[in-house]
Amino acid sequence: MTDTPINDSKTNAAKTSDANIDVPRITVRPNGSLRIDGEIPLFDHEGNALEIPTGKPYALCRCGASSRKPFCDGSHKTIEFDSTIGPIDP
Ligand code: FES
Hints:
This protein is an alpha+beta fold. Helix content is 16%, strand content 12%.
């Protein structure tokens, strides 16, 4: 995975405090994928288990452009995916 490192100070604080804890986690990457660390089971919409890499992190697409859904293939960079959340109308 080649996503941009997370620079948000609030996120870094949480990351630093948990850095030595070996627990599964999901990290929302800015303008990119969801990084999965640890062996969190993954299922399709029918409840079928999907094969995930063992012993290494992997990334799930959240931009919708990947040709390997649900996994990230780096296409978010090509489409310049912007994950900025704007104002929400009431
Ligand atoms: S988030 Fe990477 S291809 Fe969609």
